[in-house]
From TrEMBL:
SUPFAM superfamilies: (Trans)glycosidases, E set domains, Glycosyl hydrolase domain. GO terms for cellular component: cytoplasm. GO terms for biological process: glycogen biosynthetic process; nervous system development. Pathway: Glycan biosynthesis. The gene is GBE1. One of its GO terms (molecular function) is 1,4-alpha-glucan branching enzyme activity. This is 1,4-alpha-glucan branching enzyme.
Length: 670
């Protein structure tokens, strides 16, 4: 949807907090105070991964703890007890919690060894035995002949130790969006090790200073792109072990690359045997019961963010990925679905404030997001959080202390939609430059945005990448640099570069690229499924196209993308602020100069000049007769110099002149 922003969304109003925002901030502070009062501190509360699930104690005993309020009894079973479903019962505690203590063996070794297969047995009120995976499981794995994942006890003797500190937070954020499993030309699932050895060096060479990893949280269905999470604390075993992922993150840090996790807290897989759904045998537990707990389009379960234990689970999940794996921040998926009871379904947001405040807003979700951002930014000041929100919710990227939700950036999702619309519907001669610039720059002032021409959404089967929209089937036959370019390839290559550079320069305060698109990857993305014969042909990225021996023009697009990032790194346009607050333009040989800065005055301020010659002040809004302060000498004469300077519409003018003015406006007439 090309929703863009409403007319008044680009305007920043300095009016304090709205009524609804003030109420949300009050509810946030109340929830935070209750949390700190009940749990001692939010630091301890959000480290609950150190006390739930299974924990090895100093003497090698094992302590198990779960929250299963609907269970009548709870047992542990697995390889260690020959799958006896009742020999190791948990003890029921207060508030639906259960505990089990296993002393060490006689030889002082833990009672359960590393990589032992485990299951929880939940006895329901109806007397049914359900086999479940601990919600806090750190590693899950599916055997080749099994339909579901198993809980694998992960407690290596020599765990990986991070060697490198986190990089300093980038001033200009240039994100390489990546999926580990498709990061290879081979028709197979790629690994963390492959990504570490072969992809991270490319990201560094391309000038990206941040990698955003998708599909890391364990998900039973590979084709879900990682957005149907089954095991929230487990790194996907498809790509390797937890230690392999830690090595990937540590290597990225050694290269100065920030690493973000694509975190999914907006919903969860509806799987029961290997997911959170009906964990304790009830329809609720971690989720709302009834229709509110089911997403009508995604077929997934929706969290009850008001629940104390759900809060513990999700906030601790953020801390787990920050502490155990040393991620540097998160892209929060599905934020639009969280913000509203209607989940954004069949909504076309026009920018009217009534769309963002009212009974349709899910206050519990908003308070949860405020808590998430508050805790992350308090404990990790350099942490980066990005919201995937298509609605344009006001204050989403304002600090929590100012009544905002606390995100650092939102994805500027209208921009890729605009480019696809143009390429699908318009001839080159019909492109509206004003509309393009409006879409690129129409975003909430004072709230950070990530601009991008295309992401993984545009690469999925059923859509096309920009390169494929531009060059289509000729990409398979006419990309050789040894033959002259056809008109289609010529047009496609030039527009591919221009679209990406324009988006990079105007589209936001950060920039994002999906892996492979930097060099115009020719194919869409389609994961193995019954409909394609379980094929991996399109579930890969063909980095082999960049081999110099292939003499393909993909290397030229790669080189441009690299130099575009390196140029930004030198000049920093993503992080630049229009600090002078000066407007200059010429009309009918009259030079208009406006200084809107609230406190700065300027002397010897160079501006481009049209006609060569002498200029004098003819109208000064700061003159005393107009109620001004009379700070300018209207008899001063200003002479042009033969020094070129960039003027209106970034056009270089052969002459320029220096002027001086206060916090005022003036008209300079030749």
């Amino acid at each position: 949807q090309d929703q863009g922003l409403g007319q008044d969304q680009g305007l920043e109003q300095d009016q304090g907090l709205g009524q609804d925002q003030g109420l949300e901030y009050q509810l946030f502070t109340e929830r935070l105070s209750k949390l700190e009062e009940a749990e001692g501190s939010f630091d301890d509360f959000t480290r609950s991964y150190m006390s739930y699930g299974v924990q090895r104690q100093a003497n090698n005993s094992l302590m198990f703890r779960e929250w299963a309020p609907g269970a009548q009894a709870l047992f542990l079973t697995g390889d260690f007890n020959d799958w006896n479903s009742t020999s190791h019962p948990y003890t029921k505690k207060e508030y639906g919690k259960w505990e089990l203590y296993l002393p060490p063996k006689r030889d002082k070794a833990p009672a359960i060894e590393h990589e032992t297969k485990l299951k929880l047995v939940v006895l329901t009120s109806e007397g049914e035995e359900l086999f479940r995976i601990s919600p806090w499981a750190k590693y899950c794995h599916k055997h080749v002949d099994s339909n579901t994942y198993d809980w694998i006890h992960w407690d290596p003797i020599r765990p990986f130790l991070h060697q490198h500190t986190r990089p300093k937070r980038p001033r200009s954020l240039r994100i390489y969006e990546a999926h580990v499993g498709i990061a290879s030309p081979a028709e197979e699932i790629a690994t963390y090790t492959n990504f570490t050895l072969n992809v991270l060096p490319k990201i560094k060479d391309l000038g990206y200073n941040c990698v955003q990893l998708m599909a890391i949280m364990e998900h039973a269905y590979y084709g879900s792109f990682g957005y149907q999470v089954t095991n929230f604390f487990a790194a996907s075993s498809r790509f390797g072990t937890p230690e392999d992922l830690k090595r990937l993150v540590d290597t990225a840090h050694s290269l100065g690359i920030t690493v973000l996790l694509d975190v999914v807290h907006s919903h969860a897989s509806s799987n029961t045997a290997d997911g959170l759904n009906k964990f304790d045998g009830t329809d609720s537990c971690f989720f709302h019961s009834g229709p509110r707990g089911h997403h009508p389009q995604w077929g997934s379960r929706l969290f009850n963010y008001q629940s104390w234990e759900v809060l513990r689970f999700l906030l601790s999940n953020l801390r787990w990925w920050m502490e155990e794996y040393r991620f540097d921040g998160f892209r929060f998926d599905g934020v639009s679905s969280m913000l509203y009871h209607h989940h954004g379904i069949a909504m076309s947001f026009s920018g009217g404030y009534s769309e963002y405040f009212g009974m349709q807003v899910d206050e519990d979700s908003i308070i949860h997001l405020m808590l998430s951002n508050h805790i992350l930014h308090t404990l990790y000041p350099d942490c980066i959080t990005i919201a995937e929100d298509v609605s344009g919710m006001p204050g989403l990227c304002k600090p929590v202390k100012n009544g905002g939700l606390g995100f650092d950036y939102r994805l500027n999702m209208a921009v890729p939609d605009k480019w696809i619309q143009i390429l699908k519907e318009l001839k080159d001669e019909e492109w509206d430059m004003g509309n393009i610039v409006y879409t690129l720059t129409n975003r909430r002032k004072g709230e950070g945005s990530i601009g991008y021409a295309e992401s993984h959404d545009q690469a999925l089967v059923g859509d096309k990448s920009l390169a494929f929209w531009l060059m289509d089937k000729e990409m398979y036959t006419n990309m050789s640099s040894l033959i002259p370019m056809t008109p289609v390839i010529d047009r496609g290559i030039q527009l591919h570069k221009m679209i990406r550079l324009l988006t990079h320069a105007l589209g936001g305060e950060g920039y994002l690229n999906f892996m492979g698109n930097e060099f115009g990857h020719p194919d869409w993305l389609d994961f193995p499924r019954k409909g394609n014969g379980e094929s991996y042909q399109y579930a890969r990225r063909q980095y082999n196209l960049l081999d110099p021996d292939n003499n393909l023009r993909y290397t030229q697009l790669y080189a441009f993308d690299r130099d575009m990032n390196l140029t930004e790194d030198k000049y920093g346009w993503l992080a630049s602020q229009k600090k002078d607050k000066v407007i200059v333009f010429e009309r009918a040989n009259v030079m208009f100069v406006f200084n809107f800065h609230p406190s700065n005055s300027y002397s010897d301020y160079r501006i481009a000049a049209g006609p060569n010659g002498k200029y004098r002040i003819k109208l000064d809004s700061d003159a005393e007769q107009y109620g001004g302060h009379g700070r300018l000498d209207t008899d001063t004469e200003f002479f042009t110099e033969q020094e070129p300077f960039k003027g209106v519409n970034d056009q270089w003018q052969p002459h320029s002149l220096k002027v001086g003015y206060r916090c005022s406006t003036a008209g300079w007439v030749g």
